[in-house]
Amino acid sequence: MTLTEDLTDPNALLTPAEVASLFRVTPKTITRWAEAGKLPAIRTLGGHRRFPVRGVLAAYTEMH
């Protein structure tokens, strides 16, 4: 699945790198935004962050 396909699936979860490419920032910035509550994130069983596409698009709309 590509980032474009992920954005059209309302239940998709994005990686920090995918979100970073959308916002044109580094993945570390995305991590900081998640920790600050600017982006909704969930944790996988392995402890990795994943970002619901609905929340990412809402944040993108709000920031731009």
If you had to describe this structure to a student in words, what would you say it looks like?
The chain has 64 residues and is of the alpha+beta class. Strand 2 and strand 3 (49-52) form a beta hairpin. It is built from four helices and three strands; from the N terminus they run H-E-H-H-E-E-H. The protein is 55% helix and 12% strand. A three-stranded antiparallel beta sheet has the order 1-3-2. It has helices at residues 3-8, 16-23, 27-36, 53-63; strands at residues 13-14, 42-43, 49-52. Helix 2 (16-23) crosses helix 3.
DSSP strand (E) fraction? 5-15%
How many individual β-strands? 3
Mean of the pLDDT scores?
Answer: 91
Shape: globular
As a whole number of angstroms, the C-alpha radius of gyration is 11 Å
Helix content: 40-55%
Order of helices and strands: HEHHEEH
Parts with pLDDT < 50 across at least 5 consecutive residues: none
Secondary structural class: alpha+beta
Strand order of the largest sheet: 1-3-2
Query: How far do the termini sit from each other?
Result: 26 Å
Compute the number of helices. Answer: 4
Outline the biggest β-sheet: 3 strands, antiparallel
Provide tags for this entry.
alpha+beta; three-stranded antiparallel sheet
Topology overview:
Blueprint: H1 3-8, E1 13-14, H2 16-23, H3 27-36, E2 42-43, E3 49-52, H4 53-63
Antiparallel strand pairs: 1-3, 2-3
Helix pairs in contact: 2-3
Q: TL;DR?
A:
By secondary structure, the chain is an alpha+beta fold.
